[in-house]
Structures are given as structure tokens and as C-alpha cells.
């Protein structure tokens, strides 16, 4: 019957059928595989597998929605432009559960709660890092760093930022002044009533770990050397419930901030036992695993340690751009594996939640990975901004970028 039907078509009917088929094909080809709600874009598996343009390219320092379409394809270019107007990008339906929505058509809000003042004239950019919540103070603390222009050094400003959450519906962000002041702090972690900062140090003040009372803001240096060697540029810190303290130490002081003595130690990850005073390197350049390690996060059960690797620069195509996962042992870490390799910049701050997800602060937003390292979605910050670090306060995730502070309510908590 099918063959007979085809043989009975007239030339006019056949031409019409071909025209209709071409129209259907053009509609199909025009479908880029992105579905848009008001706040959420859903990326299909087909889009991930085959980019819907004949020729394209993308710089390592840009986001995927800034991919250059090198042939005329107005449909994909239009959809990439539309991503500028959403706050969330979903790659897997499990991301909806985290956001607490039914699907991409549901509304979801990412709030900008503070806009930072402009960077100083001598800086190429400013970075906000070390985001930590102290329950006694009902406040989030975080640092600001100024990446200097050539010929300048980073300034050791006497203040850090605080977001006061005593009225969580109306958070207030102000500068506060630790005493003695911190010297270019980066990462921070809350432990047993204190905020511990990993501070970079400078030419005259060795870097290390500083403990701060979140109420009085009084500070005390608690770790600053490896048997007489100065650390290079301590960057981030986490502490287990038993007091095992891990911190990263890279070459940022000499390579980026021009404010430290030449490095005399291999950069890497250090474990400091607060009970015994023992200090030892447990991973790093000495084993050729890291170059400029950066962010740290413990799993909720403290049996996994996540470490981010930057590489020489964040826009180096051959750079680190990696989150590694280790098993935590009674004396250190073991069994390194690549947990995730990101597509934009590098993962700076990293956090985990009670359900095993991992959050990496990258160019354009926060990448969210499930427990297997699969990217399930992105929390997108304002266009042109870069997420640097974040912290959970209950089921609110607070994010600090270069330009703004944000928050979003999620269907999870840190512990």
C-alpha cells in the first residue's frame, strides 16, 4: 500500500510533500534544545552532545553562553543571548528538586543583597573570598582582596566585610575591623566558636592561620611556619570536628599579588593538628598533583576532602580548572580522584551540602555537581560578575562575587 501510494503521487503532490518536509526540517533544526522559563533555562542532552551550529569556538575565560557562533545561525545565537536574562541553568531534572521548583517554567529568585563599591585605582580587579558564618554573631564574614596592576602590590587593608543576619529578611553589609588586623586574608572556616582565617601575609608579616573572635573581632596568629620556613600564600582552610586543620598554600603572593617573599616551599595542601602541633604537607606540587591549589571543602560526614586546583592562571587553557576528591584518613588524605573539571575559569571557593552535592564558584556563577561529579545545574550571577565563594546559612546559600553579594533559598542545608 505504501509503495502504491508513492507511485500514485503527481509531480505537484510530490513537490508539495517535499516542501512540507523541508519546512518541518527547518523547524526541527531551529530548535536548539534549550527551554526557557522566566528564571530558568533547561539545556537538553542533545545540545550538550552536538552544539547546534556548524562552526563555533569559545575562550576559556568566558561562559558557555558567550560561545562564538562562527557561522550564521540566528536561532542558537538568540537562545544564547536569552540565557543572559535567567538566573538558573538546569542540565538535569534533579536540579529542580534542589531549587524547590516543579520545572523550568516555575519562578525562582536569586537576590542581589549588596553591591560592592568600585575597586581602587591601583587594582585590576577586586575579589571577595573566605565566606564564613558565625552563629554567635549571626553574621557572615568575608575578605576583600585587590589584585594589583603591574608595578603595585596588594594592600593589607584593615577591614573585612560582615553581613549582619540578625534580621534575615533585611541583611545589612558593612565593614568591620579585626584587631590586630589581618594581612590579606583569603579563606575562612568556623570552628568551636571562632573564625579561622587563612591569611596570605606579605613581605613583613608571615602568612598562616589566624583565629578571630566573631564578637570582639580580636585576632591571634595560631600557625605561621613549617619548622622555620614561611608559608608561601595560604589561601583556604577547613577544620574537622577533631581539630585536624587543612589549608592550601600556593604562589599567589608572588604570582598575582606581588606582596610576598619568594616561595621557599613547594605549594600544596597542609595538615596541622591543633592538638599535637604537628604540621605536614599531605598533597601538592611535590607529588606533581597541584599547582596553586585553592579552595577546600569537607563533606558533611567529613570523610571526603574536596580541593580545587587553579594552575598558573585562571585563564590558562592548560590550567588546573579541577576539583579533586580525597578520602580523609586519621592522619591525612589518600585516593585522589578527579571529581570535576570546569568549563569556565577555575573553581575558586567550593562548598558541600548534606546530600553530597558540591558547589564550585566559577566565572559566571556557581556550578552544582551531584555526588558523582555530574554537573546538574548552575546558579548564574549577574552578567559580567564572577562568583568567588559562598556559604550556607540554614537553607540559604549566600554567594559573594567580585561585584555583588547574592543569596538563594535552596532545598538543602550544609549539615
Strand and helix layout:
Blueprint: H1 2-7, H2 11-30, E1 34-36, E2 40-43, H3 45-49, E3 56-57, E4 68-69, H4 74-82, E5 88-90, H5 94-99, E6 111-115, E7 123-134, E8 139-148, E9 160-164, E10 172-176, E11 185-191, E12 194-199, E13 208-212, E14 219-223, E15 234-239, E16 244-249, H6 252-255, E17 268-273, E18 279-284, E19 293-298, E20 304-309, E21 322-328, E22 333-341, E23 350-352, E24 358-362, E25 365-369, E26 375-380, E27 387-393, E28 396-401, E29 404-409
Parallel strand pairs: 2-5
Antiparallel strand pairs: 1-2, 3-4, 5-26, 6-29, 7-8, 8-9, 9-10, 11-12, 12-13, 13-14, 15-16, 16-17, 17-18, 19-20, 20-21, 21-22, 23-24, 24-25, 25-26, 27-28, 28-29
Structure, described:
By secondary structure, this protein is mainly beta. It has two domains: 1-25; 111-409, Neuraminidase (6 Propeller). 12% of the residues lie in helices and 40% in strands. The protein has six helices and 29 strands. A seven-stranded mixed beta sheet has the order 1-2-5-26-25-24-23. Strands 6-29-28-27 form a four-stranded antiparallel beta sheet, with no helix packed on it. It has a four-stranded antiparallel beta sheet with strand order 7-8-9-10, with no helix packed on it. The longest helix is centred in the first third of the chain and has 20 residues, at 11-30. It is globular, with a radius of gyration of 24 Å. Residues 1-30 have low confidence and may be disordered.
Amino acid at each position: 500500500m505504501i509503495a502504491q501510494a508513492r507511485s500514485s503521487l503527481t509531480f505537484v503532490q510530490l513537490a508539495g510533500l517535499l516542501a512540507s518536509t523541508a519546512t518541518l526540517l527547518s523547524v526541527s533544526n531551529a530548535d536548539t534544545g534549550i527551554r526557557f522559563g522566566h528564571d530558568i533555562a533547561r539545556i537538553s542532552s542533545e545540545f550538550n552532545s552536538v552544539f547546534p551550529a556548524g562552526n563555533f569556538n569559545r575562550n576559556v575565560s568566558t561562559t558557555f553562553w558567550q560561545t562564538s557562533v562562527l557561522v550564521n545561525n540566528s536561532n542558537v545565537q538568540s537562545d544564547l543571548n536569552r540565557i543572559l536574562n535567567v538566573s538558573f541553568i538546569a542540565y538535569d531534572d534533579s536540579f529542580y528538586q534542589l531549587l524547590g521548583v516543579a520545572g523550568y517554567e516555575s519562578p525562582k529568585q536569586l537576590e542581589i543583597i549588596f553591591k560592592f563599591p568600585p575597586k581602587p585605582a591601583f587594582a585590576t580587579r577586586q575579589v571577595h573570598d573566605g565566606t564564613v558564618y558565625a552563629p554567635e554573631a549571626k553574621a557572615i564574614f568575608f575578605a576583600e582582596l585587590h589584585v594589583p596592576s603591574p608595578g603595585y602590590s596588594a594592600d593589607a587593608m584593615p577591614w573585612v566585610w560582615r553581613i549582619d543576619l540578625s534580621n534575615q529578611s533585611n541583611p545589612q553589609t558593612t565593614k568591620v575591623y579585626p584587631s590586630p588586623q589581618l594581612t590579606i586574608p583569603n579563606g575562612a572556616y568556623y570552628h568551636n566558636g571562632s573564625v579561622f582565617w587563612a591569611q596570605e601575609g606579605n613581605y613583613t608579616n608571615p602568612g598562616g592561620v589566624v583565629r578571630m573572635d566573631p564578637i570582639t573581632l580580636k585576632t591571634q596568629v595560631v600557625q605561621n611556619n613549617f619548622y622555620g620556613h614561611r608559608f608561601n600564600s595560604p589561601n583556604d582552610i577547613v577544620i574537622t570536628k577533631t581539630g585536624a586543620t587543612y589549608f592550601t598554600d600556593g604562589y599567589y603572593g608572588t604570582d598575582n599579588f606581588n606582596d610576598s617573599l619568594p616561595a621557599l616551599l613547594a605549594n600544596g595542601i597542609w595538615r596541622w593538628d591543633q592538638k599535637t602541633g604537628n604540621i605536614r604537607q599531605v598533597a601538592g606540587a611535590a607529588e606533581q598533583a597541584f599547582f596553586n591549589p585553592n579552595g577546600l571543602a569537607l563533606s558533611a560526614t567529613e570523610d571526603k576532602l574536596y580541593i580545587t586546583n587553579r594552575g598558573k592562571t585562571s585563564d590558562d587553557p592548560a590550567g588546573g580548572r579541577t576539583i579533586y576528591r580525597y578520602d580523609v584518613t586519621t592522619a591525612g588524605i589518600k585516593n585522589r580522584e578527579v571529581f570535576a573539571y570546569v568549563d569556565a575559569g577555575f573553581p575558586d571557593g567550593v562548598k558541600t551540602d548534606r546530600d553530597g552535592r558540591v558547589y564550585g564558584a566559577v566565572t559566571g556563577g556557581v556550578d552544582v555537581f551531584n555526588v558523582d561529579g555530574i554537573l546538574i545545574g548552575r546558579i548564574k550571577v549577574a552578567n559580567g560578575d564572577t562568583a568567588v565563594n559562598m556559604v550556607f546559612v540554614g537553607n540559604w546559600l549566600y554567594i559573594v562575587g567580585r561585584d555583588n553579594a547574592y543569596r538563594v533559598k535552596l532545598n538543602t542545608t550544609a549539615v
